[in-house]
Amino acid sequence: MPLVDLTNNVDLVERATSSISVMGKATNVSEALKDAYFMLKWAPAGYHKRVILITDGDYNEGFDPESLVPLLTLDGVRVDALLISGSTPSKATRLESLAAQTGGKVYVARNVDEALKASAVLAAMD
């Protein structure tokens, strides 16, 4: 479920992201990407269609998110990912494949300081 609708209001986005919390024990990356895709598909001209996925790398609920790659690439939606600690190389590989197919990148953070630095890098990228 999106935290905010499409906006260029940075304060609104910062307030919304500061309210993020863990909401369960399952990770449904595919549902999150599907929701983001439908938000961005109809974005007005000039919007940079980009998803920043923050995840532990597990896909333990929902369908395989790579099945969305054709739709994402067709509509020019780029997926960048921030992979948070404790992840195995296979989790990073799956995310790297998904991101690369959409023109995105994956950043790995093993602690809060690394996550904050990676978030700043991701936010500043075009």
Describe this structure in words.
The chain is α/β, with parallel strands linked by helices and 126 residues long. The chain has a single domain (25-124), classed as Rossmann fold (3-Layer(aba) Sandwich), CATH 3.40.50.410. 43% of the residues lie in helices and 13% in strands. The chain is built from 5 helices and 3 strands; from the N terminus they run ααβαβαβα. It has helices at residues 10-18, 29-41, 69-74, 89-101, 112-124; strands at 50-55, 78-84, 106-109. It has a 3-stranded parallel sheet with strand order 1-2-3, sandwiched between helices. The protein is globular.
Give a short summary of the structure.
This protein has five helices and three strands.
Describe this protein with a few key phrases.
126 residues; three-stranded parallel beta sheet; 5 helices; alpha/beta
- By CATH, the topology is Rossmann fold
| Count of the separate structural domains | 1
How would you describe the oligomerization state of the chains in this entry? single chain
Q: For the residues shown, what is the average pLDDT? A: 79
Order of helices and strands: HHEHEHEH
What is the spatial order of strands in the main beta sheet? 1-2-3
- Derived from helix and strand composition plus strand pairing, the structural class reads alpha/beta
End-to-end C-alpha gap: 24 Å
SSE diagram, text form:
Layout: H1 10-18, H2 29-41, E1 50-55, H3 69-74, E2 78-84, H4 89-101, E3 106-109, H5 112-124
